[in-house]
Amino acid sequence: xxxxxxxxxxxxxxxxxxxxxxxxxxxxxxxxxxxxxxxxxxxxxxxxxxxxxxxxxxxxxxxxxxxxxxxxxxxxxxxxxxxxxxxxxxxxxxxxxxxxxxxxxxxxxxxxxxxxxxxxxxxxxxxxxxxxxxxxxxxxxxxxxxxxxxxxxxxxxxxxxxxxxxxxxxxxxxxxxxxxxxxxxxxxxxxxxxxxxxxxxxxxxxxxxxxxxxxxxxxxxxxxxxxxxxxxxxxxxxxxxxxxxxxxxxxx
Length: 252
Prior knowledge:
With 252 residues, this protein is α/β, with parallel strands linked by helices.
């Protein structure tokens, strides 16, 4: 398992918040004031991460790309050369299927891309390497789902990437070898700014097709101020994206 995965889980919430609570317990006799500070930071951070209203607010700041109008789907063939679907993890060994399956967000991307492909006739590239280093690749799993669930055969598979930046750098030679320079990019709305930036740095003209918008009215009782387990996961994804959007221009 990559060491960077372990480090990431420790330094990003909820890992760092749980460590703060543990530190508060360890310091409660040695340094009571510092212990209180660690407890407030850890408990307060976990509480904020559990609120759907925080998901809504955070997503509004990250989801900067507009949705693709359905009336424009059929005309994509005149504006682009291919559809690119970014990988989004996998679920290991689901007994119902007898094999690995695309993750929840990957399924959102596949469904939307299938609609776009059927409306436009554009070929598809799926991109995503080995999840934690073991086969099959995310690209292979997505290609299998598109074939069996939507009756669409992908033209290209990129099976080496591990990050969004590598999605772009590893896909570039595959697509450019067939003269593809204009792509329709399919990924979550919050993930789209970083994805678009990565593909544009490889010389592609990008048409964004974001899905999975979270910056919409949450519809929960009391406006989303009650803790919810799903919000912890969503806020964690949004925080990871915020860090990625800040870090990518610095490192790449």
